[in-house]
Design a protein that fits this description.
InterPro entries: Ig-like_fold (IPR013783), Ig_E-set (IPR014756), Papain-like_cys_pep_sf (IPR038765), Transglutaminase (IPR050779), Transglutaminase-like (IPR002931), Transglutaminase-like_sf (IPR036985), Transglutaminase_animal (IPR023608), Transglutaminase_C (IPR008958). The active site is at residues 285, 338, 365. This protein has 706 residues and is mainly beta. A hairpin with a 7-residue loop joins strand 35 (636-640) and strand 36. It is built from 12 helices and 39 strands.
């Protein structure tokens, strides 16, 4: 080539293997299809082949970068020009600016490093390589493929920097998690395939940020803006073309979509949404939590899925939940459990004076509840602000504070023109066993202490009163007269009850008085409820009349049979037990309630005898024992795991016939080829006409080929 002509780019090697290894992005499906995926704040390498030798004294090279979907990008606005210096790569410039340098130069080949700033917009970028001759003349070579730039929890200058290596592995790179569900006294772990590296997931996540979340290109590097936008974009509620359509059907009618309990992970949802651009039906809180975790992990923000048992839904901002006995129609309520997310980031937006007080885990919740700034969105709310009752801190700390701390007040309605009478105050039941998957282990980690001081401790009560003061609601109905302490109510429920069994509900009523006998007259009732605490269906109730001698206890026992509850169950198999009583010759009412959950059977996995080796097909059997006193029909297993492109649907057969007899085994076999060595997780769901929403998972090691 003519040495007096402008340098011309023949081809660019994106050094994919090196870059993806150094940026922890080689897991992405998109990485296999030649896209360059890098994390901000860390340099990436390009090898450029020119049509003649590069001469530092007369050739100038610069990289022109702009956001792919930024229609208004022009020089000086949204476009960055990075000139390659002639003097090596000792210094790639300020961490918050684009930088570049020459790593090696051999004749016509130049290896350069380019460093996106640590606050770079997280999005798809396009790049041109401009070459100029010092005298005159220039050329431009557009890079044919986009460059994806992600958040970087490995980079100390990034707002989402997470120091601990194991936590980065769990909260950024792990593609399967556990979500605690059930009730505080009988919880189970729901396995969920996040699949943040699978086909189309990264592209979908970036698209959602721009077109649904409408975050302008310049702000896509701010994790606070990104998190808030995602919490609104994951639900369909603001006519923003969001991802998930919520439905809490009390009649179990999910026609026209997939019942929330039937999803095994986020992958199917996001791939389908990316293809059709139409909201996916249907979701409940754990589905919203799973999908938000997939998107934010794929973008590179450390994220975990949180479950709060006995979670309060405070509609009035009063920080108390008010239930009127006998009136089941009020919207406020206590959910058996509620699922949200925590995203890890610093909060410089909360002002300089705070010195990192509110950095760290932030609550972000995409389940539509109460509007915030006119949209169905929640967060980021710093967990540390929630713990300290700082309910005015942005965003939505008051709502989260109530979810984990509200006092539950039960009022009796004595009819028109009568004041409501406060008959029960519970300061302890809301916000129990706040849980997430433990780091690098398949266990539950309890994080309740991050959200609050121990219940009824001096600190916890003073935080509550501080928050009540700040909420500015006139608490006109001051708390209960606690003087009558003679009678105590205790609900005694067994925690490990299995689906299919009969069970008893026991109420212990004690008279603490040294000298006075009391008469207690009341009713104990068992209802099935939805996990949100709504839609109670009566199963059984029993009246009681107790004569209580001084310093004695009496028991009320009610037996509930399988045939009495079976056709009234919702999919989480949850019951609400309530007891109410009046004490004769006093103005005292007693009221107690608790939840009870039936445990479903386990799904067992069995691998073929040859051992689990990468890229070698093996047989896997999934099986489950029928725990019900009746046969099961139309059993179906759904299986997901690494390398399974769309969830497998497997008809369950028993050894003999289409029905699975009482105590019989439902089983299915499939062929499975592990795609990579190391750790893997298979997860399964089982649904039959008579028994739905049973989950199981198996964690295993895959050997390298010998």
């Amino acid at each position: 080539a003519d040495s007096s002509a402008v340098l011309s780019v023949l081809k660019v090697d994106l050094c994919l293997d090196d870059n993806h290894k150094e940026h922890y992005t080689s897991y992405f499906h998109a990485a296999a299809s030649d896209a360059l995926i890098v994390r901000r704040g860390e340099p990436f390498r390009l090898r450029i082949h020119f049509d003649r030798d590069y001469s530092p004294s007369k050739d100038a090279i610069s990289f022109i970068l702009s956001v792919s979907d930024d229609t208004e990008a022009r020089p000086g606005r949204g476009t960055f020009s990075v000139l390659v210096p002639h003097d090596g790569i000792d210094y790639l410039g300020d961490p918050l600016e684009w930088g570049s340098g020459i790593e090696t130069h051999e004749g016509q080949t130049l290896t350069v490093l380019i460093k996106p700033p640590a606050n770079c917009p997280v999005t798809q970028w396009k790049m041109d390589i401009d070459t100029k001759l010092l005298g005159d003349g220039s050329r431009s070579y557009p890079l044919p493929l986009p460059i994806y730039v992600l958040f970087n929890p490995w980079c100390p200058e990034d707002q989402v920097y997470l120091e601990d290596r194991d936590q980065r592995k769990e909260y950024v790179l792990n593609d399967t998690t556990l979500i605690s569900v059930g009730s505080h006294n009988n919880m189970s772990q729901l396995p969920w395939k996040l699949g943040q590296f699978e086909r189309d997931i990264l592209e979908c996540s970036l698209m959602v940020l721009g077109t649904v979340g409408k975050v302008p290109p310049a702000f896509r590097g701010d994790p606070v803006r990104v998190a808030r936008a995602l919490s609104a974009a994951v639900n369909v509620n603001d006519n923003d073309n969001g991802i998930l359509w919520g439905k809490w059907s009390l009649t179990n009618d999910y026609s026209g979509g997939v019942a929330p309990n039937n999803w095994t992970g986020s992958m199917e949802i996001l791939q389908k949404y990316y293809k059709t651009n139409a909201a996916i039906k249907y979701a409940q809180c754990w589905v919203y939590g799973g999908v938000l975790a997939t998107i934010s992990r794929s973008l590179g923000i450390p994220t975990r899925v949180i479950t709060c048992f006995e979670s309060a839904h405070d509609c009035q901002g009063s920080l108390t939940i008010d239930l009127v006995s006998e009136l089941k129609y009020n919207k406020e309520g206590i959910w058996n459990f509620h699922v949200w997310n925590e995203l890890w980031m610093q909060r410089p937006d909360l002002g300089v004076g705070q010195q990192g007080t509110f950095d760290g885990w932030q609550v972000v919740d995409s389940t539509p509840q109460e509007p915030s700034d006119g949209k169905s969105q929640l967060g980021p709310a710093p967990v540390s602000a929630v713990k300290n009752g700082e309910i005015q801190i942005a965003y939505d700390c008051g709502f989260v504070f109530a979810e984990v701390n509200a006092d539950v007040l039960t009022w009796r309605d004595d009819g028109p023109n009568q004041p409501l009478k406060l008959i029960h105050r519970d300061t302890q039941s809301v916000g129990q066993k706040i849980s997430t998957k433990a780091v690098k282990s398949w266990e539950r980690e309890d994080i309740t202490d991050n959200y609050k001081d121990p219940e009824n401790s001096k600190e916890e009560r003073s935080t509550m009163y501080k928050a009540l003061k700040k909420s500015g609601k006139a608490l006109s109905r001051y708390y209960l007269n606690d003087t009558f302490k003679d009678i105590e109510f205790d609900m005694e429920l067994k925690s490990d009850l299995k689906m299919g069994e009969n069970f008893s509900v026991v109420l212990k009523v004690s008279n603490k008085s040294e000298s006075t006998a009391h008469l207690a007259k009341g009713q104990i009732a068992c209802d099935t409820v939805h996990y949100t605490g709504r839609g109670a269906v009566k199963v059984k109730a029993m009246d009681f009349d107790l004569k209580l001698k001084p310093k004695s206890s009496e028991y009320v026992r009610m037996e509930v049979l399988f045939k009495e509850y079976f056709d009234k169950l919702f999919s989480h198999a949850a019951f609400q037990i309530t007891a109410a009583a009046k004490i004769k010759d006093t103005d005292i009412d007693y009221y107690a309630k608790d939840n009870l959950l039936l445990r479903k059977p386990d799904i067992k996995f069995k691998f073929g005898d040859a051992g689990i080796v990468v890229q070698k097909e093996l047989d896997v059997i999934v099986r489950l024992e029928n725990p019900l006193p009746i046969p099961l029909h139309k059993g179906l297993f759904t299986v997901e795991g690494p390398g399974i492109k769309t969830p497998l649907k497997l008809k369950a057969s028993s050894t003999s016939v289409a029905e699975i007899t009482v105590g019989g085994i439902a089983a299915a076999t499939f062929k499975y080829t592990p795609p990579y060595a190391g750790r893997g997780t298979l997860l399964a769901k089982f649904n039959a006409k008579e028994l739905e929403d049973v989950s199981g998972y198996k964690h295993y090691e895959v050997a390298k080929q010998s």
